[in-house]
Amino acid sequence: MALVVQKYGGTSVATAERIKHVATRIKRRAASGDSVVAVVSAMGDTTDELIALAHQIADRPHAREMDVLLSTGETQSSALMVMALHAIGVDAISLSGAQAGMRTDSVHRNARILAIEPQRVREEVERGRVVIVAGFQGLTETMDVATIGRGGSDTTAVAFAAALGAQCEIFTDVDGVYTADPRVVPEARKLKDITYEEMLELASKGAKVMAPRAVELGSVYNIPILVASSFSEEPGTLIHGGVDMEGFNRVRGIAHDLDVAKITVRHVPDRPGIAAEIFAPLADARLSVDTIVQNASEEQLTDITFTLAKGDLPRALTHVRVVAEQIGAAEVIADERMGKVSIVGTGIQSAPGYAARMFKALSDAGINIEIISTSEIRITCIVPEERVADAVRALHRAFELEKAEPAELTG
Ligand code: ASP
Ligand code: MG
User: Fold this and answer.
1) 410 pLDDT band (50/70/90 cuts)?
2) Strand arrangement of the beta sheet that strand 35-40 belongs to
């Protein structure tokens, strides 16, 4: 008999019917002899709706009160899930994040998990109950409710799996991790497994399957994470830390992101401390900057370009314009119609030629690359937003991702 922590995302619990459906799945799993702890997200778009509602009341709602409000989304679905379980004869109990032992710091709306104290969950499991935990929320040292950032129910599930020494299964509206978004590339293939590093790169570069923080946590505690659909019985994708035999020397997947804006500060004096002067105010304003490039300088002047989420552009520009003026930069240019396409695979670090192949594929498709950035296992190109889908398709073809991997052919 195993202990399993499952997570059901917002789409999977969006309606009463779907909650009942998930309850039958949980019942089946419990009947097989496993103990089930399930973390639930808020129903459908509840979190977005609550945020919108708050903004109808106040321009800048107080972060602590936002957390009181947002945590109700998950509280609601946890209680409804337990009612659905009771209705089909399953002994179950709902626990808020606080009751389940999730302790966080007090950075409201983006709190870090400090510890999981899972005694109550354990006791309920030992009583033979299914435990439904409200995701995305915890309790601070001052006994206030804090939420842990968007997509936080994934992170909640992985954290509880680590604390309980349990298996972890994330049920969502897609049936696994694909070589690319199947809505963009119809021949995209589902991967049987993928390493934490690869998944982290894909997730942080736009693949929406799982919250990057949850993958990171899984990697730190070495918790294998199964991602599968709550709507089907398809096998899903296992994210794990093993050596990636299947994908050896291959690109595993392509991620894309349409939410990219670009800021260029032109003719910045090239002296020590300038980059710090530009980026410190952005960090202070909690604006997260993605790809940064600084050109080689000519006559002691250089250009600095960086990207960030579109929604952050207006605020970032306010800060950057002030600094640009102070340091005597020539001008600040912004473009919010950018996108990003990345190839990811552990093979990239050991074999040369991936970058050249990527650039060739994009140039053959007539796509202009604006910025290039790399990690050991990823190459990212910033391209015009309207060419992103073409870029993903061109790269999927160029790296032959529609073809089965060697291990799949041998079974
Ligand atoms: N309900 C929260 C959100 O939408 C947490 C989650 O779904 O994981 O971000
Ligand atoms: Mg959600």
Assistant:
1) very low
2) 92-95, 130-134, 35-40, 3-8, 167-172, 225-229, 237-240, 193-195
> How much is the pTM?
0.90
Q: What number does CATH give the domain 3-173?
A: 3.40.1160.10
4 vs 375, which has greater pLDDT?
Answer: 4
Using the atom order of ligand 1, give the atom closest to the CA of residue 73.
Answer: 1
Decide: 47 in ligand 1 pocket, CB within 6 A. yes
Structure tokens at 228: 């599968």
Whether 409 shows a pLDDT value over 80: the answer reads no
- Reading phi first (left if > 0) and then psi (alpha if -120 to 50, else beta), residue 292 is in beta
d(CA 251, CA 226): 21
Checking if the pLDDT of 2 tops 80, the result is yes
The tokens of 316 are what?
Answer: 């970032």
Handedness of CA 113, 116, 117, 121 (dihedral sign): positive
Q: Is 97 in the pocket of ligand 1 (CB under 6 A)?
A: no
- The residue extents of the domains of the chain are 3-173
Q: Is the distance from the beta carbon of residue 19 to the nearest atom of ligand 1 less than 6 Å?
A: no
Q: Give the tokens for residue 192.
A: 């049987």
